[in-house]
Design goal:
The complex is a heterodimer of chains A (353) and B (226). Chain A is 48% helix and 11% strand. With 353 residues, chain A is of the alpha/beta class. Chain A has one domain (5-352): Alpha-Beta Barrel (TIM Barrel), CATH 3.20.20.210. The longest helix of chain A has 25 residues, at 173-197. The chains are: A alpha/beta (353), B alpha/beta (226).
Chain lengths: 353, 226
């Protein structure tokens, strides 16, 4: 069975049998090597569809990663809702954009903030759409085109003061629930726009909700219902999907699975062996190698060992725990792909049995 | 001024912090001042033990960040009332700290929790805020001659900027100590970056800050009994 990366990734997400685990990600895969190859400056990439698409393709072209993912930052949805982004155009070293001006400033706005009627043309959503279309045109036959957005709570922390959001999550749960429900509706509309543009899979990054921050109890009452709503909508529109949370997730991993996504992904702080004990062999779990240390500092041998460990611990795709750190050594990322090809069948728990 | 009353007020401060009951803390702190008890003792025998217990609850995953933030609010409510009645020399130990969240990162919860403990301890804290350009840390350390510089990053993507700051600070002032903290920081990374200390999450940061306070309190007690 020889599969293209696209077939491998999408068949797996559809629950079909495949030859080996794929090596890819649902998050950003920017590397300094990729930027240099193209002669691009990172701050300019976020607002230019052509650059965005070309840069996303480098992860496939340069190291054989089995996907192309856009965008690269965490501000797209927040900007569409009225936040102002800082791309750090005047900073020498590479920085990811942040929100410099929140969209919401008062408690009263939380459950009634305005949502642009024409979301498809709000902020940089059209840029991401155009980048997806370009990637689809050039690589659509062989590569799965991925995209992502933040989960409602994480997005809430982008558009409103995070300290207050966290405190209100405790003190004014009804209000925050209403806010997250509103954001879930926005995200479902965004998903539809990306799907129509041709994206093959979408990762919901509810990264600000792990148990480093919130209690499992709060996760269940406040976070989970909105993720279920989004994921049900994704399924309804036949949009293959992943639910990603970084940080500590062992205490909520079962609840993550219960949200019903095609797959979940976790980072290295998640003890995968414990996770498998808890959720069993069936659910697709992607992860969970170190996106920074392993790829930037460690040796090629370490990379191979890490891939084997991920597989032995029970992952179904070699994913980083977060966006790949841009200074990743090219030989390390290549080794990651190679090790996955080499061991992705024999060490995979679904083939071992 | 009965010993019993003092104990009762300090216990109220402690319980108020633990149960994030700002009103109770304010009431007890006002009573401490009105009834002429030592503000320093109220901080170190009331508010601080409260935060210590909160730290334990956080570590046991009984409390999480929202709870921690609310406890911190209660603690500041008390500190704001008590601080005007404290002399820095009461503590017997002083220090200057520069702290901030590195550029590219706008998450400052961890930094604020550590700052709170320095505030309690009576340190002179120069808080640079969040999204702070690298050179500002170096300049501020030189300007204030700080003993300690604390750098925080919440995201892997911003952590790497710390390396340059540490190098430059050490180059200009080899005696300054640098502590780094934040979700993506590990001991290994702290070592690679040349930091003197590290705290990988809010729990650790809080624990470290509490350890530091405990040491300070011991020093203070020793100074008093000497």
């Amino acid at each position: 069975m020889t599969l293209t990366p696209k077939e491998r990734v999408l068949k797996q997400l559809a629950g079909e049998e495949i030859d080996r685990v794929p090596c890819y990600s649902g998050m950003g895969n920017v590397t300094v090597a990729g930027l240099q190859e193209l002669g691009y400056k990172f701050p300019l990439v976020h607002g230019d569809a052509e650059m965005m698409a070309n840069l996303a393709a480098t992860s496939y072209k340069m190291f054989g990663y089995e996907c192309a993912v856009v965008p690269f930052d965490f501000c797209v949805e927040a900007e569409a809702l009225g936040c102002v982004m800082n791309a750090y155009e005047n900073v020498e070293h590479l920085l990811y954009p942040t929100i410099k001006e929140k969209a919401l400033h008062s408690e009263e706005e939380l459950d009634s903030f305005p949502i642009p009627e024409d979301l498809a043309n709000a902020g940089r959503i059209p840029v991401v759409v155009e980048a997806i279309k370009r990637l689809k045109k050039e690589f659509g036959d062989e590569l799965p085109i991925g995209t992502y957005f933040l989960g409602p709570f994480t997005l809430g922390g982008q558009i409103y003061d995070l300290d207050l959001l966290l405190k209100y999550a405790f003190k004014k749960q009804k209000l925050i629930y209403a806010m997250l429900d509103r954001l879930a509706d926005v995200l479902i509309r965004v998903a539809k726009i990306y799907k129509e543009a041709g994206a093959d899979y979408l990762t919901v990054r509810e990264m600000g909700s792990g148990t480093d921050l919130l209690s499992p109890r709060m996760w269940n009452t406040l976070i989970k219902p909105h993720l279920i709503k989004i994921i049900s909508a994704l399924k309804e529109m036949n949009f293959p999907n992943n639910l990603h949370i970084c940080g500590e997730t062992n205490l909520i991993v079962k609840n993550m699975v219960e949200c019903g996504a095609d797959s979940i992904s976790v980072e290295l702080k998640n003890d995968m062996v414990k996770t498998r004990q808890e959720i069993g062999p069936e659910p697709l779990v992607f992860g969970n190698h170190d996106a920074y240390k392993l790829l930037v500092h460690d040796s090629v041998d370490d990379v191979e060992k890490a891939v084997i460990k991920c597989l032995e611990d029970g992952v179904d795709a070699i994913w980083p725990g977060c966006d790949i750190w841009p200074e990743a050594k090219l030989e390390n990322v290549k080794a990651l792909v190679e090790a996955t090809k080499k061991y992705g069948a024999e060490k995979w728990h679904r083939k071992r049995k | 001024m009965s010993e019993e009353r003092k104990k009762e007020l300090f216990e109220q401060l402690k319980q108020g912090v633990i149960n994030f009951d700002e009103d109770l803390v304010k009431e007890a702190a006002n009573a401490v001042v009105a009834e002429g008890f030592s503000a320093v003792d109220a901080v170190f025998q009331g508010l601080v033990p409260g935060m210590e217990y909160v730290g334990e609850l956080y570590e046991q995953q009984e409390y999480f960040v929202p709870e921690l933030l609310m406890c911190a609010d209660a603690m500041y409510a008390g500190l704001d009332i008590l601080r005007p009645h404290m002399e820095r020399t009461d503590l017997g130990v002083t220090g200057v700290v520069v702290m901030g969240v590195v550029q590219g990162d706008v998450h400052d919860i961890g930094k604020n929790i550590v700052k709170m403990m320095f505030d309690v301890a009576g340190f002179e804290v120069h808080d640079l805020g969040r999204d702070v350009p690298l050179e500002v840390f170096v300049e501020e350390q030189l300007r204030t001659d700080a003993d300690l510089v604390c750098l925080s990053a919440m995201m892997t993507t911003t952590m790497v900027g710390m390396k340059d700051i540490i190098k430059q600070i050490k180059l200009k002032n080899p005696n300054a100590k640098v502590m780094i903290g934040g979700a993506p920081v590990t001991e290994d990374i702290a070592e690679k970056f040349g930091a003197d200390g590290f705290a990988e999450d809010a729990s650790n940061a809080l624990k470290d800050a509490i350890n530091m306070l405990t040491t300070l309190r011991k020093l203070k007690d020793e100074a008093e009994s000497a």
